[in-house]
Design goal:
It contains 14 helices and 6 strands. By secondary structure, it is mainly α. The strands form 2 sheets. Strands 1-2-3 form a 3-stranded antiparallel beta sheet. Strands 4-5-6 form a 3-stranded antiparallel beta sheet. It has 3 domains: 44 residues, no CATH class; 82 residues; 169 residues, hpI Integrase, Chain A (Orthogonal Bundle).
Length: 352
Amino acid sequence: MRLQFPGLLRESLPSGAVRWRVRKDGDKTKRILLHVGPDHPRFGEHYYAARAGIQLPPEPEAAKAVRGSVGWLVDEYRAAMAAMLANGLLHKATVHQRGQFLLWLASEVGEYSAAMPQGQLIQLRDKKAATPGAADNFIKATRAMYAWAMERGHVKANPATGVGKINRGKGATAWALDDLQKYRKRHPQGTMAHLALSLFMFTACRLGDVYRLGRANEVQRGGVVWLDWQPEKKGSTRVRIPILPPLLASIRAQTVVGPAYLLTEHGKPFASKNAFGNKFADWVRQAGLTDLSAHGIRKAAGELLAMHGASQYEVMSVHGHSNAKTSEVYTAGADRDRLADAAMQRLSGMDW
């Protein structure tokens, strides 16, 4: 699995150990040795310092956690996640998010027994009640760690089982037609901001996929240009949809062409979905919009498809859903292509 850090070099040593080095930005001949790996909580600081030509000193070694403690369990699971990441069994974003929550868990109750009572875990969750989404994700990360630990006999019970969510929101707010128009008025065709919105709207893809899309994903099918990509989200079905005229016009209106459709001010692809996400958030703010996210466009696209008569099967084919929990149906093979084509054509005449 490719790490999205430009200039990061992974070097295997004869001993079997792995060494990480970083090319200085603007000087490919200078390589800075890192004293930490990508699974370290302060990796980002070391990486960006190295890109600037600065080598940070080694991190002080933390005291080894007592076997059987929460801290020990967190260390064991983080090492296991690193191995799962290397084998393609976990996404790096999942490893990072879980790791941050579990490091916080260790900082709070690391010296306690791993046989943590559920009440104590609920108290920790409630400490994060001001940010309910984070509180629920903390429980989710802890539940995953204890499920892994139970399979290996480290603990006998999972204290996170049955702990309810405190975030009762309905998720991202779908963009209204007025929101879309306001954004496009501020960012007309030919701008990278307009292309970003067009890609979100006419592919219904996620933030983690949109910044990767480019001409390499274009395929010709019956004289029509289609986009073909595998979503990064684990378990998603491959998506194949035709490029509708509004999106094609937005793509071809760009004067700078690169390996990805979406490029920085320097004409380079965005380094990560977070880097692009921050830029898109800036474009949204510039349009005078608040409380709207990229995922809300995906929801808007689904709602527009439904409003224009698309069936549940068709929406599923466009969004890449693959199970009953998400879409209640499953459609496979060539039938997905036909349904996706039919669904997208419902938006082809949209005034964009």
